[in-house]
Sequence to fold (436 residues):
Amino acid sequence: MIRIYTVEKAKETILKRTALEKYAPATLERTAALFGEGVTPPQAVAQIINTIEAEGDTALRKWSTLLDRLDSTDFATPEAELERAYDQIHEEVRSVIQRSARRIRSFHEKQPFTSWLTEDMGGQLGQRFTPIERVGVYVPGGTAPLPSSLLMSVIPAQVAGVQRVIVTTPPNPHASILAAAYFCGVTEVFQIGGAQAIAALAFGTQSIPKVDKIVGAGNLFVTLAKQQLYGVVGLDGLAGPTETMVIADDTADPQWVAADLLAQAEHDVQASAILLTPDESLADAVRQAVTEQIERLSRKEIIAISLENKGGIVITASLEEAANLANAYAAEHLCLSVADPQGLMEQINNAGGFFLGDHSFEVLGDYVAGPSHIMPTGGTARFASPLNVLDFVKISSVIALDTETSAKLSPIAAAFAETEQLTAHAAAAKARIEEA
Fold:
């Protein structure tokens, strides 16, 4: 079950980041069975990408048949099917989608992004924000339907002003995913998953539109496809397994802390759920609570593997040490179940999201708090941010200098160009000097 670690042992194990290239034996076996002996996951993804770029829908149908066991000539979901899904889902589910969507939209509408110009540097200088024209949203299928991921990706794009949002999701999606798309006003939903969906969006095929940027988390093959297509298409980031870190002191409720760890471990066998605490009594109580609560959960087999391999409880010397460890780990979700969460947060720079206090638990962030739940994983919170409105806009510089300022700056530009031995640059600047 869940182990208790010293800081030294944790640094060697659960707090140590591992490279993406370390694949599970089951993944390698399945890859070999589908693509040939000795073929690695990156090589398999390269095959998919190359054939879709060359053959479009023909290759897309081939890979869909092989990987998804779907023999179809049409990947598009009719708009009538989206509406029917919305009408037929349980009224409570429909209400959940509506209420969550409204909070997500309200949050992102508060994010500032404004074009600006200044005239205090000679003429006009500024920045112009424009929305990306076409965005692809990947909604994973996996072992659980995730309509929340659709809301968390589509709504910030719409707030930014993206005019065309194209959704892809693995075949035969849960009705709640289609219903969420309908509620958001998305009309282009394609039932295609995995690396083939990412390649189709990047290059465009006869049936799937080419997009300018792709967002949304997915499995290993989705992540590898995004990695290989970087530069061909814009990307939000490379999502790894989800992770939650909790820092708790003696004021925390061990039952609640255990429940939060279990909720994270439920996602996937590769998910990480880690508790840092200086209180040994709390650590023992949380471990006991985990043992008791897991027996009541439907995905206890997945949780058990996750906690065994990627989870744990770490006994720290102090909250300050816990904060230092958390800063180095840079967790996707960082939950501060301590007496002074605001004060502790000020000691930490790196986290995808801070969840302050027992009543701001991570599950609320997954669904309804407001910010997008698509957050940086794998330690990338050191330099990356959660998905937000700025992911869906471009900034263009605006340069409109007046004649006087241009004349003053041209000699500087000419001298700089000559320093860099770029004579054509220098000549272009000198021509303006001579004119003046």
Q: What stands out?
A: The longest strand covers residues 124-131. Residues 91-109 form the longest helix (19 residues). The domain at 4-14+241-371 is CATH 3.40.50.1980 (Rossmann fold). Residues 310 and 394 are 38 Å apart (CA to CA).
